[in-house]
Amino acid sequence: QLCRLREQQNLLDQLNVDLTYAVCLNLAIQHQANDNDNEALTIYTQIVKNKQYPFSGRFRVNMGNIYFKQEKWTAAIKMYRMALDQIPNNVQAIRFKIMRNIGHSFFKMHQFPDAIDSYENLLMHGAQHLDFMTGFNLMLCYYALGDKEKMKSGFLKLLNIEQVGLEDFDEEELELGDSPSAQKDPARTLAEGDDALREDIKRRQREAARFIVNAANLIAPVMEKTPVAGYDWVIDSLNHHGFPRIGSELEIAKASYFLRRKEFDQAITVLKKFERKEPSPMAC
């Protein structure tokens, strides 16, 4: 409207391309934030087609995100790939995030081999760009294809994921923050230093634990010749990588397997291991 007004008033010499670019982009972002998807797509389309706007093709990522939210997976993949062509190779972090989104789109369409190809690109550079959700989705792809060896390697990669802020996390503090008394007494929480950042770290820690528990329960019964051997492998891997509490959760799952098969002596043997352990509720 501003451009048309300038044309009507013969003020085209005052047209500022950079300012118009910034205004249009901000308007599209605000439409997207307010779920006005069609309006946002219309403006994004105008931006990416205007060769006067620098790096405008990268905003196809935003268009892909809108299509992804609308469950238009094919259109989302198309936008992500077009955006990927606009991102230079030295901007690895952004490129890996786009590849991850392409993998998520293929995963939603149950095209697991294509999803695996996209996800495995994230394993480059020591898998530093792999997050827990992506790692778990990769595990599901391997599970769907029945690839037991890849399930093992994928599970170990899931256990080795490192995220900023989770390295020095104290499980004792997690129990305190999740306890009913801490939730009912905000003053106590503040007194013990639980700020918004710490709460976010706790939330991400619980989320990571949930992905690991679900992955472990999924693959343990099927990855070895017998379910018991599978549980043993998973439990050993969890303990070796510093997840003893989740290992205890899998011990209980193993005992439940014996109970379902009415192998009560085996179940009792497993459960007796907990007699000398203090109760430690799972944080997931």
What order do the helices and strands come in, and which of them pair?
Elements: H1 2-8, H2 17-33, H3 37-49, H4 60-69, H5 73-86, H6 92-108, H7 112-120, H8 124-127, H9 132-145, H10 148-159, H11 171-178, H12 180-184, H13 186-191, H14 196-219, H15 227-240, H16 244-260, H17 264-271
Low-confidence segments: 169-184, 187-191
**Overall domain count:** 3
Distance between the termini: 52 Å
Q: What does the largest sheet look like?
A: none
Shape: elongated
As a percent range, the share of helical residues equals: over 70%
Rounded mean pLDDT score? 81
Total DSSP E strands: 0
Estimate the strand proportion: under 5%
Number of helices: 17
Series of secondary-structure elements, N-terminal to C-terminal:
HHHHHHHHHHHHHHHHH
Radius of gyration: 25 Å
| Helix-and-strand structural type | mainly alpha
Protein name: Intraflagellar transport protein 88 homolog
GO cellular component, one term: ciliary basal body
InterPro entries: TPR-like_helical_dom_sf (IPR011990), TPR_rpt (IPR019734)
Keywords: TPR repeat
